[in-house]
Every structure is written in C-alpha cells, then in structure tokens.
Specification:
Blueprint (H helix, E strand, L loop, with lengths): L6 H14 L3 E5 L5 E4 L1 H7 L3 H4 L14 H11 L5 E8 L5 E11 L7 E8 L1 H16 L1
Antiparallel strand pairs: 1-2, 1-5, 3-4, 4-5
C-alpha cells in the first residue's frame, strides 16, 4: 500500500471513508457544535448539513435522558474516555429514534476537546423487542 504524504490527501481519504460509512458520523467542537456530519447522520435526524453545522447537538435532544445520564457522559469524556450508550434522539419531524453511539474525545482532557460521534440506528431492534415483550405479556 502506498504511503500518503500529503495532509490534504489524508483528509480527502478520511472524508471519503466517513461519507461512505454505514454508520452515522459527526464531529463536534468543544461546545458540542456540529463541525461535520455524514449523509447517514443527516438521513437519520432529518436535518440537512446546512441546518446542523454550527448548531449544538442539543438540537436532537428528546428529553428522554435524565441529568445522571449526561453527568456520566461528561465524567467519562472529560477524562478522555470513550462513552457508549443508547441515545433516544428526536428528529426534525419530532419522531424519536434510538441511536447506539460511541463518543470519542479528541484532544487533551481539560482542554478544548473535540468529539467524534459514531452511531448505529437501533430503532427497529428496539421496536421489535417491545413488540415481543408486549406479545408475551398478552399470552
């Protein structure tokens, strides 16, 4: 495999990989504003790139997570540790969806970190599980 020496070529390769991914990918700044989102991310949340970039991730907040959930998230990422959880988000149309996300802090703990968010929509799996549970309770 050929070594890539040009930083702009490396960035182009990374962007192509992010855009071609089957997972949703977002890059957030230290204030949790969107810097980058791939097509899958846009499709899931219903917002276009121009509506997301520069806005805070709280745009997708569903109100389904309590203070303790966010405390655990920030306790981990502020110490440079990955955080994994299922987030219930709200899309542009107001519909809830479930996203299994990994949040990866980029940079030094205690400084202006950025965050890479990689997600997988698990809404169908959760709906199937709930249907199965309700069917079992009827029997």
């Amino acid at each position: 495999m050929e070594k890539v020496d040009n930083i702009s070529e490396e960035i182009a390769i990374l962007l192509r990989a992010f855009n071609d991914s089957i997972k949703s990918i977002a890059l957030l700044d230290y204030e949790t504003r969107f810097l980058y989102v791939n097509d899958i991310f846009q499709h899931r949340c219903g917002y276009g790139k121009e509506e997301l970039l520069g806005n805070k991730v709280s745009l997708l907040k569903s109100g389904q997570h309590d203070t303790e959930f966010y405390k655990q998230l920030w306790d981990r990422v502020n110490t440079n540790q990955m955080y994994q959880a299922v987030f219930t988000n709200k899309n542009k149309a107001g519909t809830f969806y479930h996203d299994e996300q990994t949040i990866i802090p980029i940079g030094e703990a205690g400084k202006e970190q950025h965050f890479l968010v990689v997600g997988k929509d698990i809404s169908n799996a959760i709906a199937s599980e709930l249907n199965s549970m309700s069917y079992e309770s009827i029997e």
